[in-house]
Amino acid sequence: MKTGIPTSTVHDRVKAYERRALKKHTTLIDFSKLGFNATTNIAFRAEKGSREDLQGFLSRHPAVNTLYRTDHAFDFLGEFIFMDLSEAHDFVNSVEKSFGAQAQLMNVVEELKKEDFLTREEHCLI
Q: Distance between CA atoms of 20 and 37, rounded to whole angstroms?
């Protein structure tokens, strides 16, 4: 879509947004096309005294796409990407055993919307 805005103006505005609000520029990947066919959301409740260790482990694990600290019944909520559901279940079992954590696994069966906030023309930042 042509905006009618000079390239230099767009560049200056993007740079201003980068300083003010943009965390990073990224590409959304279709993980299934790379053989990762299981996207899961997993909530973890840490055993007393193991929250920091569990957070460190999850933060470093390559299957973690996004990780949040929560203030509800669970301590952490994450989006995880696995080759298949068997790998996801093995991961959960391993974490529960290693950290004494409780987990709630929710498999994503269909992505309905992702990364769409502020992308519509009426909300466009530029």
A: 36
Average pLDDT over all residues of the chain: 89
Residue 75 is part of a domain; what is its CATH number?
Answer: 3.30.70.920
Tally of CB atoms within 10 A around 54: 20
Q: By three-state DSSP, how is residue 63 classified?
A: coil
Residue at 3 is within a domain: no
pLDDT of 5-28, one tens digit each? 888 888 888 888 788 877 877 888
Q: Burial level of 46, CB count in 10 A (0-12/13-18/19+)?
A: buried
Q: Which amino acid, one-letter code, is at 73? A: A
Q: Which domain holds residue 79?
A: 31-107
pTM assigned to the model: 0.78
Phi, psi for residue 106 in degrees, rounded to 5: -125, 110
* Residue 1 pLDDT exceeds 60: no
Q: Please indicate, yes or no, if residue 116 is contained in any of the structural domains.
A: no
What are the pLDDT digits (tens) for 80-123? 999 999 999 999 999 999 999 999 999 999 989 887 777 666 55
- Residue 125 has a pLDDT of 54
